[in-house]
TrEMBL record:
Transmembrane segments: none annotated. It comes from the Bacteria. PANTHER family: HTH-TYPE TRANSCRIPTIONAL REGULATOR SRLR-RELATED, TRANSCRIPTIONAL REGULATORY PROTEIN-RELATED. This is Transcriptional regulator.
Length: 245
């Protein structure tokens, strides 16, 4: 009797990957990390495999509690019918990509707060983020425009494990960090996020606004960077030749 579980020329048929194939599942999970919330179709297009194959891996992530689903916003829907499903990783899913701190780190900062107070925690947060960006500082500040600096910062953060991206939005840039190695610590000590935001502003030479953080329960850490040239006394650069918002 023919074994239907064997696929001819399987090396060229990516859809034949088993449901729990580690390499492909991790590739799917990484796209949910870096681009989520995202549709299965978008993941399939990025990886070059069928949506059906992607859904097998996403179903496994959902079953293991490493991913969740939500409906796409109505404004992105075309035509009628059920809303498209978007997928993103849970804290458990993000943890598979490593966390820089664990319960011991939380306990250590609690002790620091008890013995040194608020200023000691802020001094620690400042030291940590300074060390994070210092090796990339020259490359970032060398960029001429806010958009170029935002992209350089996103590249630097990605190299440090934050899976970051930057894109143009309205009259500014939007910096997204799809992973936070210290999210569990920052959930208890928001000084880490606050200090990070302050350092971003100094590094980019512009006021920035933190819109969302993974530590506070959002899917992505999002920072708005207005298109203000260093030394421009706060004037917004018009978007595409139009008037500033």
């Amino acid at each position: 009797m023919r074994n239907t579980g064997v696929v001819k020329n399987a090396e060229t048929n990516l859809d034949a990957v088993p449901q729990h194939d580690g390499k492909t599942r991790r590739a799917v999970a990484r796209l949910l990390l870096e681009q989520g919330p995202v549709t299965a179709a978008a993941v399939a297009e990025e990886l070059g495999i069928s949506p059906t194959a992607v859904r097998r891996h996403i179903d496994a992530l959902l079953a293991d509690g490493e991913a969740i689903t939500r409906d796409a916003p109505r404004q992105t829907q075309r035509g009628r019918g059920r809303p498209a499903k978007l997928f993103l990783l849970t804290d458990a899913g993000r943890a598979q990509f490593g966390h820089a701190y664990d319960d011991l780190a939380v306990a250590a900062i609690r002790f620091l707060a008890q013995t040194g107070g608020e200023e000691a925690v802020r001094a620690f947060a400042q030291s940590r983020v300074d060390a994070l960006v210092d090796r990339h500082r020259t490359a970032i500040v060398a960029q001429a425009t806010p958009a170029e600096r935002a992209k350089a910062l996103a590249t630097a953060l990605t190299r440090e494990g934050y899976a970051a991206s930057a894109r143009h939005v309205g009259v500014g840039e939007q910096l997204c960090q799809h992973h936070c190695p210290v999210a569990h610590v920052a959930a208890e000590f928001p000084q880490l996020c606050e200090t990070e935001t302050e350092v971003f502003a100094t590094l980019l030479g512009s006021h920035v606004q933190r819109l969302a953080t993974i530590a506070s329960g959002h899917a992505v850490c999002t920072t708005h960077i207005p298109n203000v040239q260093p030394g421009s006394a706060g004037k917004l650069i018009p978007d595409d030749g139009g008037e500033p918002a």
